[in-house]
Amino acid sequence: MVLSEKIQLPSRLGLLALLGSGALLVGAYYFQYVVGLAPCEMCYWQRYPHMVAIVAGLGALATFSWPRIALVLVLTAITALIVTSAIGVYHVGVEYHWWQGPQACAGNIPRGLSPEQLKRYLYGARMVRCDETAWSMWGLSMAGWNALLSAILAFVLASGVANWVRSRDEDRRDPRSR
């Protein structure tokens, strides 16, 4: 029996979540460390759910002998992908000035600084604004691509879960499968 035949669908979906979120996170790190685009606060917010999806996907893959546990972990990954997609949509709205972003994106100035300290702080501060698009392709910013690709990945995973659950229900009802 081939290993892929032993691994039930929830664990394979976990692998897909692991690879998909891993690729999106690697892309974000590539733009940060290779291309030199510093991320804003909301860019970091979009990364955390991908980390959750990666861990959940890895857990789903590791629990291939227990498909129900793997299913719960895949559902966790789907939830994380929906969250990062929603944050991405919110970020796109801030970039296109459809609505105001959080205060963390406008910069926080520490309180209690003397005028000289404030001057040094302001001149030395490297601020990355959330309402400015640092990079875009085909009119879609990185936040937009994250929102789109994460939503597609969540949809694919959810479709796989729905098909697996449906096939298990059909197997239970079919007297020939017993």
SSE topology:
Elements: H1 3-6, H2 9-35, H3 41-62, H4 67-95, H5 115-124, E1 136-137, E2 140-141, H6 142-173
Antiparallel strand pairs: 1-2
Helix pairs in contact: 2-3, 2-4, 2-6, 3-4, 4-6
- Return the CATH class: Mainly Alpha
Query: Main β-sheet, in a few words?
Result: 2 strands, antiparallel
The CATH superfamily is identified as: DsbB-like
Spans of at least 5 consecutive residues with low confidence: none
Specify the overall morphology: elongated
Q: Per CATH, what is the topology? A: Bromodomain-like
Beta strand count:
2
Going by CATH, the architecture would be Up-down Bundle
User: What structural class should be given to the helix and strand makeup?
Assistant: mainly alpha
Number of helices: 6
**Strand line-up across the major sheet:** 1-2
Chain-averaged pLDDT: 85
Instruction: Write down the domain tally.
Output: 1
The radius of gyration over CA amounts to: 21 Å
Percent helix range: 55-70%
Strand content bin: under 5%
For the terminal residues, how far apart are their CA atoms? Answer: 21 Å
Quaternary state of the chains:
single chain
Descriptive report:
The chain has a single domain (3-173), classed as DsbB-like (Bromodomain-like). The chain is mainly α and 178 residues long. The two termini are 21 Å apart. It is built from six helices and two strands, in the order αααααββα. Strands 1-2 form a two-stranded antiparallel sheet.
